[in-house]
Write a structure and sequence with these properties.
alpha+beta; twelve-stranded mixed beta sheet; 10 helices; 12 strands; about 35% helix
Length: about 350
């Protein structure tokens, strides 16, 4: 006997939207699905609006729009979606799939149908390395497990609440870090960056490839000059104010590391830690913690309204986890990345 849920699922149709030309209504509907899902799976995250969704699809992380956008409709209403992401810079065999459903439409096989179409497209394009992600103990993680996608990396979302910082402790930690890195200086890098710093920024971006991957099977990220510039442009286009510090050795000007935090113009209480990395040959001078605390001092001056900064680390990245915990970060949630060769 067919249930009402079966009838609704059968009536849901899968279609596709052009990510670079979303209407106000469609962008708003996508935001509604995302907000409803995260209210269940990640209630600590602030809701997003149509403008946030539209800019994300249009500009991505480095001026590369979302590769594909599948949507499930119940009548005219969007009730689920699958975002398909690729990199044009590296990992030509990878497709990252992000699936979300409105909680009222879960357990009806809609996500199975979305993934089936995503995998058909992956095969057609020769993208045989498919990745996904999910919060720990979430409906989405159960879905990926059922689809035969093993967990390959375990991550944690940490948060730093600025009002709760122990400023005297941080000041002493910064002084200690400066004493351990007297041959280095920190340089404020504007957005867009000057051309004479481009080679240094390429070097510090590429340093992220030393971060632990656990069982994740991917190639190194590639950061040519064009991508560095595209990243800067995307942050501006998405309404993100970029704050960036570069560490370099004073004796020869060699780039040593950097840290980047962005603050949303539309939600200026919220900050996100983009990247902190130190090039291998410059490690051992406490540059990571020096960069982090110096950035907090900068944000206190330039972004006094900022409430919190979110950061993400692989649980196996014990060094950066220790740095984040030392400055006052705490875990708000854990998540997994999954992967399957098709």
């Amino acid at each position: 006997m067919e249930t009402r849920a079966d009838a609704v699922a059968a009536a849901v149709e899968i279609g596709e939207l052009e990510p670079t030309a979303l209407s106000d209504a469609d962008a708003g509907a996508l935001a509604e699905v995302a907000n409803a899902a995260e209210a269940v799976d990640a209630p600590f995250r602030a809701p997003v609006d149509a403008a946030y969704v539209r800019r994300g699809h249009l500009y991505g992380h480095d001026m590369q729009p979302t590769h594909g956008l599948l949507v499930a409709r119940d009548g005219e209403r969007i009730v689920a979606y699958a975002e398909l992401h690729i990199s044009v810079w590296d990992n030509a065999d990878v497709l990252f799939v992000e699936i979300e459903e409105h909680p009222k439409y879960r357990d009806r096989g809609i996500d199975d149908r979305l993934l089936e179409q995503a995998l058909e497209r992956a095969r057609a394009e020769g993208r045989t390395n498919v990745l996904g992600s999910a919060w720990l103990e979430s409906h989405r993680l159960t879905f990926w497990e059922r689809q035969g996608f093993p967990v390959v990396t375990r991550d944690a979302n940490r948060r730093l609440v600025l009002a709760d910082l122990d400023r005297p402790k941080l000041a002493q930690m910064l002084a200690d870090a400066e004493a351990a890195s007297t041959d280095y200086e920190l340089v404020d890098v504007p957005n867009p960056s000057p051309d004479d710093l481009l080679a240094s920024l390429m070097a510090v971006h590429n340093a992220i490839n030393d971060a632990p991957l656990d069982d994740l099977d991917i190639e190194d990220d590639a950061w040519p000059a064009e991508r560095v510039k595209a990243y800067e442009q995307a942050m501006t286009a998405r309404g993100m104010r970029m704050h960036r510090l570069l560490a370099r050795r004073t004796s020869d000007g060699a780039a040593a590391g950097h840290t980047v935090v962005v603050v949303e113009e539309d939600r200026p209480r919220i900050g996100a830690q983009e990247d902190t990395a130190v090039i291998r040959e410059h490690r051992g001078h406490r540059l990571g913690i020096r960069l982090k605390i110096a950035m907090l001092d900068r944000l206190a001056e330039l972004e006094p309204q900022l409430d919190y900064i979110d950061t993400w680390n692989a649980e196996s990245n014990t060094h950066m986890v220790a740095v984040n915990d030392a400055i006052g970060c705490f875990v708000v949630a854990r998540g997994h990345e999954v992967q399957k060769r098709i």
